[in-house]
Amino acid sequence: MDGTTFKIERREFLKLLAGATSGMMLSGYAFNKLTPVGQAYTDWPERIERWVPSVCLQCSGGCGLMARVVDGNVVKLEGNPLHPVNRGRLCPLGHAGLQLVYNPDRIKTPMKRVGGKGSTQWVSIGWDEAINLLAERLGELRERGQPHSLIVLDGRPTGLMGALWERFCQAYGTPNHLPTDEPDGMRIAHRFMQGLDQLFGYDLENANYILSFGCQLLDGWRSPVQLARTYGYLRQERPGPRAKLIQIERRLSPTAARSDEWIPIRPGTEGALALGIAYVLIREELYDRRFIEQYTFGFDDWTDARGQHHKGFRRLVLERYRPENVSAITGVPVDTLIRIAKQFATTRPAVAIGGAEATLHSNGAFNALAIHALNALVGNLDLPGGVLIGEEIPFKRWPPINSDAVAREGRRRPRLDRAEGDAPWLDTLPLEALGERILNGTPYEVQAVFLYASNPVFSTPTSARFAEALERVPLVVSFASFMDESTAYADLILPDHTYLEKWQDGPAPPLSGVPTLGVAQPVIEPLYETRHTGDVILALARRMGETLAAAFPWTDFKEVLMFSVRGCYEARYGRVFSESFEGAFIRQLQERGWWIPQFSSFEAFWEELVKRGGWSGLFHEYGKWGHIFRTPSKRFEFYSQRLKAELEARAERRGQPLDALLEELNITARGDEVFLPHYEPARFAGDESQYPFHLNPFHVLVLNSGSGANLPWMQEIVGLHVHVKWDSWLEIHPETARKLGIADGDWVWVESPYGKVRIRAKLYPGSMPEVVNIPLGLGHTASGRWASGRGVNPYALIGPAADRLGGLPARYATRVKISKA
Amino acid sequence: MPRWAMVIDLDKCTGCQACVIACKAENNIPFVSPEQAAMGRTISWMEVIPIVEGEYPRVRVRYIPRPCMQCDNPPCTKVCPVYATFKNEEGLVAQIYPRCIGCRYCTAACPYTVKYFNWYAPQWPEEMRACLNPDVSTRPKGVVEKCTFCHHRLQKAKEKARAEQRELREGDYVPACVQSCPAGAMFFGDLDDPMSTVAQLARSARAFRLLDDLGTEPKVIYLIEGEWYGPRKRA
Fold first, then answer.
1. CATH for A201-388?
2. ipTM above 0.90, yes or no
3. Is the CA virtual torsion A456, A457, A458, A461 positive or negative?
4. Using the beta-carbon criterion (under 8 Å), do A712 and B181 form an inter-chain contact?
């Protein structure tokens, strides 16, 4: 298992074969490569077998792999037993990586469009030509003083590739390195309540009570295998009382199905329920009094320096969120609410997590604030079983850049996805609004778009508009491995390697708080004329010369990786992945402040790092309360002074009073309430009288938001609980269906103000009567032979909408009507 | 001789189907076209059976991963006219493809529906043939196939143990599904070794076997969900 090579001699192999014959298989079929029955086998394969550690990069979960390579081909992917994220396990998508790498629909060479915009004619070109072409076009933009008109849409903005893109943008002179991955809505709560712009982890393994507000813990959230491992551990392995998982969600998802209690809730009212729970905690004095007094701000009424009196969180909640009021809003019965609240308060450690459907809504930011407030009420911040504020991976810092005047000028232009001007929100724009800006040429014309791990034409509402936008841009460059919906609009395609063909960093998403870095290495030689996008960036910079070339002192991405992981070697903590008993011992030492260097040189460190698959910081230091509250008050802020300052600054820049800005943002609260966690009624696209149902587009683990659709094995298992394969389905409540005269398996029309799709209905008692559910990730019009033309894409129904405060996409705020087809 | 058995803890299972795909990758199981799939011809040696119970809002979904039960008293072997399927000395229900005449008596006889018929020769795009597992044969048209408990892994484990001049140890031989289970819900080992994990789990109060009353004596043992259904009383 350590990557060494061994060769099975022919004699040995024959013996093995004899064994197999006497067993259950007969030799005639024992070679798939591939002798028909009865024909003599003459072409003996070498059968050199190697096990190569790497990282699965299909989702952002960061699982360690052991790839079994026979005769230069990967024939099986298994988990790396040493990797702390997955400990030798793998999810279905991980196994199906074989079908991704050996997919017949991969783009095999660089290509350029012939016949101008709108044509679908392509010719293969060489890499040198491709890079020269690109360098020339980008050079022209710089000469014209328009480097800012390049935008890089980056679907994988974490890790070193994200950093490399950012550096390229910096040296080239564009502020537009724009993330396109699905944002985590809880981030906004972390920012306004704790002053930290980072994703928090959750110590679920030590929690006794997990209150999930629509968080898809077992359906692909963050790191699927790690979550499943945690689930198994909580269910039957952990000694002591059984942990409880409560799933508050509008659909009986696999997570809800495996929870201890599913609480259906009216869409968009999660924040109200959280405040109702807060009411019980405060009213019955079940909150953590010591934590509230020492580490929080704005819980009780307070008076500011100017002598003005302000309302505290306690009074707001007690006045506004009595259980009966909350029950009327959410549809959750009063006794359920009180029971859950009491359990949450008394079953410590208890933790509250907000998921996408609660936080990517028209009132998502306020829901996030209300949910995160619960964690503060039980004082469960940076403690075992609580919310964890983790450390970053200690990558070595790259040398500073000396950018030239053109680049500096370009970087001064406003970022295209920043909510300024026409968009009053505080943070970023949803992708569809970005598309509109490209289309309208505001605030400036976009001359070039790079698509890296992004497919906005598939995964954006009103995607036809985004496609139009791409058609309008003179230069669209795609780095995709497949001819997906967006790549179809590219003028130049520079296909990346698949993950088993390249060097890459695989940072684990924040969960346990421990920084963990997997190292992906090429498991096989590249199958086609593809090239690592990192190498392409470096080659491009070299070709463009001057300050750009100087900013990238590396020859290939492997060097970037080696340069960066030197930081782990020099960190004076952590360890290359090791057996768990060894790791446990080292961790204990480390917790007591000891650290033993493992290697005498970086070369030895690197060799072991690659052989074992990665590096881990080993342990999380709890209770860093001096560091985790970077707010003006240096405390956890129920009353967010940062939110207040940002809103006031925004109002001032727009030259309007604060109330006018709030009016424009459709925020109903006024005064102190605005800056406290409170419930803002959700808004929906589509009028209730005309569109009586909520549309709930949900993620499916195996579809990975769309990229799993061209893997036939994934298509075969996609709709397990409703017995659907190779297709989409609409989940509808049986009683609702009966009223509409719809039987199981009937074709129906689903129509929103934005579009209409035809889909098969499946009667599912796990649907709420007023909610219908459609899976995300199917309904491709391109992306390969198995993906294309199968099922429907719910984005065709979703309206362009943003969270009213932050501007995150409101994906779950569309209403629809159903009719028999 | 060991008696190989599998234990599946339904309380830990998340229904993710990693076992299903691990099996397909390990055993060169072909995928079929959507049209064939609609006719019920998808081959899935390991299948997760979902059971939706109850009415809104008190609904539960249970997931039951179902490999071949490797019955001690298998109904399928008794009906095979050509001895293509039989119970071998280690208690595994084997399937000899070249001997199979495709009559599908066994398919009909199996109460767990684990037997799959090859309606045509398996087809892969040329590119995908490169990632087939060289340890496992592909099957021709007209034969029945099913879960083997990854028997080829046992062959390899035995060879390795012999090369190292030692006995087979627990954990040497584990089927692909068990190895891959993210939640750690699956266990594998020798039921006749009272100290093995599977033997111990099989004695649990939560243990049950599917369609036990048919007398098939399956060697896949399930552990019922913990607190939802209450501890199972021993008779």
1. 3.40.228.10
2. yes
3. positive
4. no
